[in-house]
Amino acid sequence: MEAANLGIDGIETYYGYDHCDPWRPSPRQTELVRAIGNRLDLWHTCGTDAHGLKISRRL
Fold first, then answer.
1. Apex 16 CA angle, 2 and 42, nearest 5
2. Residue 4, SS3 per DSSP
3. pLDDT per residue rounded down to tens, the chain (59 residues)
4. Torsion sign, CA atoms 4, 8, 47, 13
5. Is there a contact between 20 and 54 (Cβ–Cβ < 8 Å)?
6. H-only helix segments in 1-59
7. Residue 24, CA atoms < 13 Å, CB-side half-sphere
8. How far apart are CA 2 and CA 46, in angstroms?
9. Which residues make Cβ contacts (< 8 Å) with residue 16, sequence separation at least 6?
10. CA–CA separation, 51 vs 40, rounded Å?
11. In sequence order, what E strands does 1-59 have?
12. Residues 37, 4: contact at Cβ < 8 Å?
């Protein structure tokens, strides 16, 4: 909420909170974050960073 008040444009909605392999967004957390973003009128994004040697196992 505070970040939205400071003027951010978007929120990283699609994220692999479950750290699964291969990577995919975590449904329950994605829906919660999406609802917050919608309520605050923010853009929804997906993180593209990868850590480690395997792109399909983003953290």
1. 35
2. helix
3. 788 888 999 999 988 877 777 777 889 999 999 999 999 999 999 876 666 666 666 55
4. positive
5. no
6. 2-5, 27-39
7. 4
8. 21
9. 23, 24, 25, 26, 58, 59
10. 30
11. 10-14, 43-46
12. no
Contact residues for 44 (Cβ-Cβ < 8 A; gap 6+)? 10, 11, 13, 14, 34, 37
- The confidence score (pLDDT) of residue 54 equals 67
Residue type at position 10 = G
Whole-angstrom distance, CA of residue 14 vs CA of residue 5: 22
Residue with tokens 């951010």: 8
What is the C-alpha separation between 2 and 18, in angstroms, rounded? 26
